[in-house]
Amino acid sequence: MHKIFISYCREDENVAMELYNFLKLYGFSPWIDKFDLLPGQEWDSTVNAALRKSDFIIPLLSKNSTQKRGYIQREFKQALDFCLDKLESDIFIIPIKLGECEIPDKLAKYQFLDYEKENSFSKIVDSICYKKPRLEGEFDDSITEEIYSNFRIENIREQGSLDFKGYNLSQVLQLNKISNGIEGYLLVLMDSKRKSFIGGIKYDGYTLASIPYFEYKAPCWDCNQSFLLILDSQYRVLYHQYLGREAARIDRVFLYKNGMYPTYILTTDYSAEMGSYNGPISRFFEVDEKGFKFILNGDSLMSSLKSQWVIEHRKERNRILYKTCRPDWRGNEQFFVSKLKVYECNGLEWVMKESQKDQFWETFGDKVPELIKEFSEL
């Protein structure tokens, strides 16, 4: 679990706490003096140790912090000193600019995030993801490493008639009171004959969209069905769902503008073989104190040569765009019809608008800019 030091001045405490809660939701380990500096601890040595142990340092730059003498300047200087031990290509300092202010010369060489721009916090995750393979090997943003390494299938209690013999723990995501209304865990279990379903959701800064990518998995006809499980903090089963014999995985995204409430994407690979109309199928769901529910009217979105979905990040609200191309026989003549669907949350529920036209269309994942432009009028 990555340790992230937040450097701020007292006047910017509200933003620091917002950032702290955001990083917590993503499963990281942020350090902030308000919570992590205990009564009686010696200030200098404790803060210095936290800085030294951090994988990332996030200084909050504002008129208050950059013009203020004292401890905040010392933290900036210590962060720069620790950079001397890093490679030039490493990401270590991630400055966030809070409004108009003069950036200190020694921090000016680092690309900063603008707090007032949309999705500024989510781009911090992009920077962490960029570095993470160098630290821990293959990156999987859906697994919280510390929880995963300590979790055992044998821990699961009150499982009723469910039998997990012959299963491997594929993924563990932590649920918490702030974002989900419950303390617990979200799990994917797959037959031990299967390997993990590699993939994820990548943010693309050029198109301002999050794009799914999945590695095809060969079918396993003699595998047991995969499981999705929700456990409480005592490892008791609150909910389970059979996922068929397909490979399965879960990814976590933040679709709502407050950045506090996550949405989960359950992807299963139903494709018996590679083909234009076959590919992994994704369904969006949420977990709260009321239970488990699919959103987007329960619709399934496929990723294939003739199906593409993306999450478009917009200033007013995020949208999910989905395009498909299918044959349409009219008499003895074959046509192709492209359908466009856009999903938006109106504050109470997700609504869908759609249109279609005669068009042959295929994507190799390189047509996202054109796709977003095509949806601009819908």
What would you say this structure looks like, in words?
With 378 residues, the protein is of the alpha+beta class. The chain is built from nine helices and 20 strands. Strand 17 and strand 18 form a beta hairpin. The longest helix has 17 residues, at 120-136.
Order of helices and strands: EHEHHEHHEEHHEHEEEEEEEEEEEEEEH
- Rg, Cα atoms, Å: 23 Å
Overall geometry comes to globular
* Beta strand %: 25-35%
- Number of helical runs? 9
Largest sheet, in brief, is: 6 strands, antiparallel
Strand order of the largest sheet: 8-9-17-18-19-20
Q: For the record, give the distance between the C-alpha atoms at the N and C termini, rounded to a whole number.
A: 41 Å
Runs with pLDDT <50, length 5+?
131-146
Helix content: 10-25%
User: Based on helices, strands and strand pairing, what is the structural class?
Assistant: alpha+beta
Q: How many β-strand stretches?
A: 20
What is the average of the pLDDT values?
80
